[in-house]
Amino acid sequence: MKQALFNLLPPATVAAILAFWAFAPAEWVDKWWMITAVGLVALTFVQLMEFVAERHVGWRINRQEFLTDLFYVLLGITAISWASDTFANGPMGEAKEAMGLATPWIAELPFLVQVAIVMLLVEFGQYWMHRWMHNNGFLWSTHAPHHHITQLNAMKGYVGNPIELFLISLSVIALLDFDKAPMFAAFNSLGAISYYAHANVRADPPKWFSFFFTTIQHHSLHHTAESFEDTRCNYGNCIILFDRMFGTFREGESAIAGQDDRKRLSILEQFLFPFQPWIERRRARQGTG
């Protein structure tokens, strides 16, 4: 009975988020910080569940992992969010207004329909960006640091090189006229699904949920340390349905995460990783100079 209840945690969390935004007062929806606050509450809850229903002892979070993950969470909700708004969402919104583009009919759709459209659009872009990162040399150099993590925890979805974190945040939502509440509900729901997909929580959602949405089983296989080729599956960060549709889905689970020699990268090494070949060439020239 206890395990059955834990298995319902992911869908129950998403349902709670949807209910919150569906009935939230207008003044709450208009507060810019509310979407961040709801996301952090969900993240905190999932992280705490790791202490209640641990999945793998080898993924047990320690002080170093916690502080590193916390740094990336703060980076994500500040610098990465600012960069996305400044260099992508803002310019897209301005271009939309300049061209006179408008989709007022979207805001007239039912709440859950708008939520579903936002989730599908965001995840469709992320699926192809993620898949491209595994098949392009430079993009892989920005994404590889995320695969150097040696354990999965709720906050690990935030961990990565800033270039990758910016690229994976891009979407076309700014070009469409969604109501705030369903848009916020969609982003918070995607966040909660991602938290569980990275979390060291013993929760295996029902088949109807795992058919559409990514779970820790799917994503742990994507992070397997077996080989690089073994990670080229289950690209959906939150919606595994796209992997089923485009032939990249694999069933299974892995308890061993990491890349290459499974060396854990420091924050500085994560940031410098894409530039490592250039740094090494420069050091070689200086050594022979």
From TrEMBL:
<feature type="transmembrane region" description="Helical">
    <location>
        <begin position="7"/>
        <end position="26"/>
    </location>
</feature>
<dbReference type="InterPro" id="IPR050307">
    <property type="entry name" value="Sterol_Desaturase_Related"/>
</dbReference>
<keyword id="KW-0560">Oxidoreductase</keyword>
<keyword id="KW-0812">Transmembrane</keyword>
<feature type="transmembrane region" description="Helical">
    <location>
        <begin position="104"/>
        <end position="124"/>
    </location>
</feature>
<dbReference type="Pfam" id="PF04116">
    <property type="entry name" value="FA_hydroxylase"/>
</dbReference>
<dbReference type="GO" id="GO:0016491">
    <property type="term" value="F:oxidoreductase activity"/>
</dbReference>
<feature type="transmembrane region" description="Helical">
    <location>
        <begin position="32"/>
        <end position="53"/>
    </location>
</feature>
<keyword id="KW-1133">Transmembrane helix</keyword>
<feature type="domain" description="Fatty acid hydroxylase">
    <location>
        <begin position="116"/>
        <end position="248"/>
    </location>
</feature>
<feature type="transmembrane region" description="Helical">
    <location>
        <begin position="65"/>
        <end position="84"/>
    </location>
</feature>
<keyword id="KW-0472">Membrane</keyword>
<protein>
    <submittedName>
        <fullName>Sterol desaturase family protein</fullName>
        <ecNumber>1.-.-.-</ecNumber>
    </submittedName>
</protein>
<dbReference type="InterPro" id="IPR006694">
    <property type="entry name" value="Fatty_acid_hydroxylase"/>
</dbReference>
